Amino acid sequence: MIILSEIMTATQIEQNDPNDVMVELRNVNKWYGDFHVLKNINLKVSKGERIIICGPSGCGKSTLIRCMNRLEEHQEGDIIVSGITLDDDLKHIDTVRRDIGMVFQQFNLFPHLTVMENCCLAPIWVQKQPRKEAEATAMKYLERVQIADQAQKFPGQLSGGQQQRVAIARSLCMNPSIMLFDEPTSALDPEMIKEVLDVMIDLAREGMTMLCVTHEMGFAKTVANRVLFMDAGEIIEENEPNEFFDNPQSDRTKLFLSQIL
Amino acid sequence: MAVLITSPSPSLPPPASSVGVVGWLRANLFSSVLNSVFSLIGLFIIYKTVPAAINWAFIQADWVGTTRDACTSDGACWVFVGVRINQFLFGFYPPSEYWRVVTAFSLIGILVAWLLVERTPKKGLVGIFTIFCYPVIAYFLFYGGAFGLPAVETHKWGGLMLTLILATTGMFFSFPIGIILALGRRSSMPVAKSISVVFIEFWRGVPLITVLFMSSVMLPMFIPENMQIDKLLRAMIGIIFFQSAYMAEVVRGGLQAIPKGQYEAAEALGLSYWKSMFFIILPQALKMVIPGIVNTFIALFKDTTLVLIIGLFDLLAVVQAAFADPKWLGFSVEGYVFVASVYWVSCFSMSRYSQYLEKKLNTGHAR
């Protein structure tokens, strides 16, 4: 287990330039048919920042991060990732997707490919890396998530925790500067949550910019710079983690925290 | 009372009644009174039919000879098939050119075997050769008209050769066209989608026999005299379009079974539409619908017999034509049994291969 003070030091070392904005959302609105799922979202994420998004089911937190790599389309407002505005231009979408890694609740590994092939596919066919180089990179990240010995297996032969670690390694192989996590531990058996969180904590220590939808409050306290609380499509409360958990301001936040803690 | 076992108990052999022949019979044939009754009825039917059939087809059958006088016993007269075998295989193809047909089929046999058997080298290269070069080679071998090979008009093609040509070209083209149509039908682009839907629903909505009839009787009325397309080619195109529509729906079933997360993961990694289809979606979707694809192939193979109504002499038509030979009247049973066995062996092989393929491609992802 990582010690808290260690993290704090790490955070202090890479003091971030607040002007180095990685993701910016300006007045973003989104509807599913008539349902107003994101209401006037404004958010700035600086380089190296780690943001936890929580909130009750259906509050729009997954939709929010899925808009950032255009898995969902927003109808109003601007989303700017690494200086590129997400619009209908496919080139913009492609560039943004290469720069953002995403980890899903259901892992979404490709079941017909081995772990190694899962990791190498996008570097080879999107980034045009030579196979040897892609495999070396993949091995490096697989070692980092401690699953290198399973590289030739198929995803179906691994446990949930192992699959999720492969999914993280697969995203890292694209060398992204931002990582999105959409409830990465929600589909896991309890005894496997820690191995995935450890990998994520490790990633946070290295200064990765992370946006993470999760209900793992221990993890939030350990790594987050900020916690956003969403309800009914709005960011209701935003605070530094200890303040957020110890001294919630709005009634809805208090209610939510009393239900999950 | 507490339990304590200090050494493991020895493993004993299972009771004799649950293993071996007795065990098998008990489990599979006589597990209840009703099942025993059915088993006995089944055994009785087998006893009454199978020995008689074997007796007719093999033991009492006549195999050698050149005329019907050679058939003296009570069994099948395979002499009828024997003397006409060339016609059954090649139709009216000139005997001096048989070697071309044999070469073409041997070549595709070797190529396909090369691709299907495991651990043969250079599969990629052989695959490309089979897809792009072989059809050209086959065209010149079958039709000729170049490289010193005399042209053999398609109305002389017939028999098993014609059946196989129709079936393989049908499979070869309907598979990729079907995939494109299935992707089109699921596309978000309105034009691609409506073209696919209209194409699929049109061809799926008409019987093949009508398609063949239209292609051979109606179509020539609408196109100018000097632009007439070969009858066989017209039938082929009809079969290809017809089967593509079925293939498209089979493939679409597979596409729909792929979880949305697979598309999203591919998108999130930055794969383009065609790359994510080629590397992620289609390999999984096609694997899932192998039984459906092979089903369509088998149906296509047998449906080629319908070309006899437009005057093409496929295997069945050629054999039926031989029944009319006054020297060989009364041997239709042998002819039909021969045709049926050829079809059955072909279709059964396809079925077995598909089962093998399903096992081989199973990466245990059903969790």
Structure description:
The complex is a heterodimer of chains A (261) and B (367). Chain A is globular and about 50 Å long. In chain A, strand 1 and strand 2 form a beta hairpin. By secondary structure, chain A is of the alpha/beta class. In chain A, 40% of the residues lie in helices and 24% in strands. Residues 1-16 of chain A have low confidence and may be disordered. Chain A has helices at 4-13, 61-68, 90-99, 115-125, 131-144, 160-172, 190-205, 217-223, 241-246, 251-260; strands at residues 21-32, 35-46, 50-54, 76-81, 84-85, 100-103, 178-182, 209-213, 226-231, 234-239. Chain A is built from ten helices and ten strands. Chain B folds into two domains: 79-93 and 152-361, Orthogonal Bundle (MetI-like fold), CATH 1.10.3720; 94-151. Chain B is built from 15 helices and one strand. Chain B has helices at 20-28, 33-59, 79-83, 85-90, 98-116, 123-142, 159-185, 190-205, 208-222, 231-257, 260-268, 273-288, 290-303, 315-323, 332-361; one strand spanning 313-314. The radius of gyration of chain B is 27 Å and the shape is globular.
